[in-house]
# Entry
Amino acid sequence: MEATWDINFTSQFEKDAKRLDKSGLGGWLTGLSFLKDGPKVDNKQLKALKKQSKAFRWRKGDLRVIFRVVGQSRSILLLAARHRKDVYKKPPSDKQEIAGSFDELLVRMHSNKSLNDEKYKVSAMQNAMQKALIFTPDNGQAELEEIFIDEADLFLLDIPQEYYPLILDVKGLSSLEGKGIPSSVKRRLEDYLTAPSTDHIGKIYSLDQSNDIDAIANHTLDRFLVSLDPQQKSIVEKPFDGGPWLIRGGPGTGKTLINLARIKRIYQEGIGDDLLQHGSIKTGFITFNKQLSKSAEAMFKAISIDSSGGDVSFSTLDSLVMSLLGNAGKESKVVFEKEQAAVLNLVMGSVNDERWDEKYISTIQQRRGSSFILEEFDQIILGNGLTKEEEYLSFTRKGRKVALLSKERGLIHRLYRLWSKEMTRRGWSTFAGRRLTVERMIYQGQLDISRNCYDYLFIDELQDLSVTAIRLLAHLVKYPKNLTFTADTAQSIYLKSPSWSNISNNIRFHPGNSFILRKSYRITSEIDRAVKPLRLNAGDTEKDNDGIEQTIFSGEKPCWLNCSLDNHPSAAAELSKSLIEKDINPGQIAIITPDKKTTDLVQQALSSYGVPSDVFQKNRGLDINSKAVHLLHAHVVKGLEFPFVIVTGIVEGKYPPYSAVQAAKDNVQLEETMDNARRLLYVALSRAARGLWMLTDELMPSPLLTYLNQEDWTYREKRVNSTLKKPYEIKSHVSGIQYACGEIILSQYFQVGDILVTNREKNNIHDSNAIFLTHNKKKIGYIPRDLAALVANVIDQGMNVYVRIICINDSSLYSGLTISISMPSQEKGRQASKPKNIQRFKDIYKPYH
# Structure
């Protein structure tokens, strides 16, 4: 019969073959020629697999040859050839590239002459093939057998881990009898091994969308979250005495789960019994916010029902700080930006230093803004413990794009000292200030932490912790080797990773105690590719990139759904209902909203569609056993994962927030704002594992959409309800600009696309409908009087009006700025009109492209 299968080899296989030939073990290679008729032998248990790759081994005495069958292309790839003692020590990768054909390899192995000699090539090929024809698989007791199953198969088949050792120790299905393995597990294995198809739970090597959904449908979220894949399991089983440990990875790589599984090991195996001199082992799991802490605790309960062997506490960093401060912490009140800014404004007038003139002091807040200065206090000075001016002046400000002159730094630190003194006088504090206070007290021996010290400490979401916070936590573990950190730098609220040399001399990382999880068993390759353009790593070198390099699952492209912002709640509810109708458990679905108002609207829409929902609350964790759709804000989803995610409100004014854009004083500060919004949107979209829907509005698109490649998405339109009126969009000029701005060159101060803020001026003695416009918080003129009544009516109804510069004419100051006034129909609250294509935003937001 004519041979119909191609046999190819990898470069590793050729190296193995040459090594075996030199060791005196020859003559075996030609025996593999029978594979040209396909991997068929008399053994009835072995069959060629259709549309799916599979590993086999051929053995002859002590020799083992491993190859993979690719049924779709009717080809065989030779992977490795080694002694039976060595072949499994370093399993061959199935990702190796083809190095050549089997016939070429025969010629190379049987001749020292060059293949460029065509005459000799033909002769050598004929001789080699003649030897192959007289060699059969049965000669020399050669046998072909299927590699039964591996750990990755068991994970994907959802086999309970307690049966792994028993299954992996046998050679076939018949050997499972009498091993105490449930009949349901045996049936699942039998179906998988004897009837492979694209319709049942897929192998690592090929998986399509139907497999993804079938593998997880009808289960609650806990089944999806708490299963360890082989790569994660290998890290969980690392010894505990080789730390401190650092585990980094992108979304869906199981960083948090690894921490929880290692905590489970501590109590199951009695690790650290020598630490029991003063009571049970004390283990802490610390993360940045209460939501993640509560969710981690729920996951731990799901994987470890009995944790009575020790003391496990789940806490946020700031809850821990409060407990350490005790009564002293209750004496001060944590205040937020509004109160902090009020104190800053007060002390601005009290700076009395001959190094700075009065004009310089009065303008620094105008140039930088209160938000920027307060962030400098929080992230740089308090976050790094730079309470001395000389420390701050010499510090490399990682993560802040806005450069500061030395003179500016000196004034900011002077302002910080006055601001801090006034905050203390009022009994006010900040979270960053409390952390620094506690860290300094521990370091100086002023705070007894003996009762709060941990035997093992696991720190999640490291990227969100400042240097001060990490130092504080390092004080709270008895031995630094018992510290474990996990991080995804792309989800950082800071722009740079910390320098460990600046944190502690006892914390050092090297290849032996540092891991990057490059493989994701949860997120599909299509979702990873679609959201990856938004990813911003905190590091600035290649080694700091901890993104996903390999996704095991594949599926459909995520959906870019364009519809009216008003329709986002009903569209999200519709999508949720359609998933539930496909037998998806509602608890596997999450809808991520930009704010509380949108959450309320989505919940109402879900209720009208008869879909149960569960709004994520700050005072409790994620209910992973829930059978209701989860509703969450984008700011609290970090660290969480869901099979199906719908992200609403990806529009201008939400990503980034309109207030943050207006607070930016220049293009560099605006770029920082855009980067923060980009990180937030990346976090929201990357929560999805199997299905992702992104809801936008082309009339007011988020500028962040320009980063995404639309070809990586399935683009769909959803018609706006026909009862809604189209929005008004009126062109006009800015009235009175010559009085507000004086004789200026407009193009030096304004750009096409700049947003102007509307401000109602009801007490204007000339016109009660007056609306003045501001640019970067500076008044520049009015909406013309003949339009003011119409626009004022819309504003007074609580609806949004958007004003944007669309033309600049330096030759006419009176009508030099042409503006577009976009506002909703007064009959329906339709959001304002916006530029109708993404390309326009590429022109408007040039600093980011």
The CA atoms of residues 313 and 414 lie 40 Å apart.
